[in-house]
Design brief:
Mean pLDDT: 97
Number of strands: 8
Structural class: alpha/beta
Strand content: 15-25%
Order of helices and strands: HEHEHEHEEHHHEEEH
Bound molecules: 1,4-dihydronicotinamide adenine dinucleotide, oxaloacetate ion
Helix content: 40-55%
Length: about 260
């Protein structure tokens, strides 16, 4: 398969999942992938605008904080942008937050939910353990700080463990399937499908932000606010805004300039 078959592959698609591009090696940030992956995402987004402009797009390629804005700008230029249909896939952050919380709180992971908001890189990943269900009163503030850091560094932990052989693959396949399935359920009219995703947002002053969204027949039906935050989470929110804003602007600038 190559560029020749791209149009044929996309034609008629309801959901397009983009995992194309290079993964990290130890010592790299997700932003270090920008130079290669930005062009790949731009080309694929251009083809989506042409061949399946109504599809829901699940962006996995990193840096998600920049690749989602790149796709948005490409779609705007093509006149096909629908903010309800573009998603940065942050499900793996939720999977990690749930797993680490369940282990520490001693509850079955299948019963756990933890919203993760912000973006998908380092400190921009903000798990809201104060809203975790079922609630746990056995966790100390030190535990919450450690769980937050482990969730934020989860991708880097895998990259280092794989020592040059790429980043998370199996867990990403699971997370990608969970999110794509949620999109399909929404398209099929299943009610109350809610997942976290990095979408166009007015939840903060930033144009894109991850939070809980309700999925439906048109894609995003509702973007939920952040709810009540602990002081630690409020601080995390303020701390992430600068980096997230810069990553979003970098994507927009690239889309306009190339
Ligand atoms: N959002 C998330 O939570 C996660 C994102 N990722 C990101 O997913 C991306 C892919 O990672 P891996 O699958 O581990 O890498 P990989 O190297 O195993 O696979 C990348 C694939 O992209 C393909 N590709 C390259 N250029 C392409 C193009 N122009 N059009 C179509 N396909 C193209 C390659 O042929 C290859 O099959 C990376 O950017 C990685 O950082 C990975 C894990 C989690
Ligand atoms: O860390 C990486 O490079 C891949 C990724 O986004 C993740 O595993 O969360």
């Amino acid at each position: 398969m190559g560029d020749d078959q791209l149009g044929e592959a996309l034609e008629g698609s309801d959901v397009v999942i983009i995992p194309a591009g290079v993964p990290r090696k130890p010592g790299m940030t997700r932003d270090d992938l920008f130079n290669i992956n930005a062009g790949i995402v731009k080309a694929l987004s251009t083809a989506i605008a042409k061949h399946c402009p109504n599809a829901l797009v699940n962006m996995i390629s990193n840096p998600v904080n920049s690749t989602v804005p790149i796709a948005a700008e490409v779609f705007k230029k093509a006149g096909t942008y629908d903010e309800k249909k573009l998603f940065g896939v942050t499900t793996l952050d939720v999977v990690r937050a749930k797993t680490f919380y369940a282990g520490k709180a001693g509850v079955p992971v299948t019963e756990v939910n933890v919203p993760v908001v912000g973006g998908h890189a380092g400190i921009t990943i903000l798990p809201l353990f104060s809203q975790a269900t079922p609630p746990s009163n056995s966790l100390s503030q030190e535990d919450i700080v450690a769980l937050t850091k482990r969730t934020q560094d989860g991708g880097t932990e895998v990259v280092e463990a794989k020592a040059g052989k790429g980043s998370a693959t199996l867990s990403m396949a699971y997370a990608g399937a969970v999110f794509a399935h949620a999109c399909l359920k929404g398209l099929n009219g299943v009610p109350d499908v809610v997942e976290c995703s990095f979408v166009q947002s007015t939840v903060t002053e930033l144009p894109f932000f991850a939070s809980k969204v309700r999925l439906g027949k048109n894609g995003v039906e509702e973007v939920f606010g952040l709810g009540e935050l602990s002081d630690f989470e409020k601080q995390g929110l303020e701390n992430l805004k600068g980096e997230l804003k810069a990553s979003i602007e970098k994507g927009i600038k690239f889309a306009h300039g190339n």
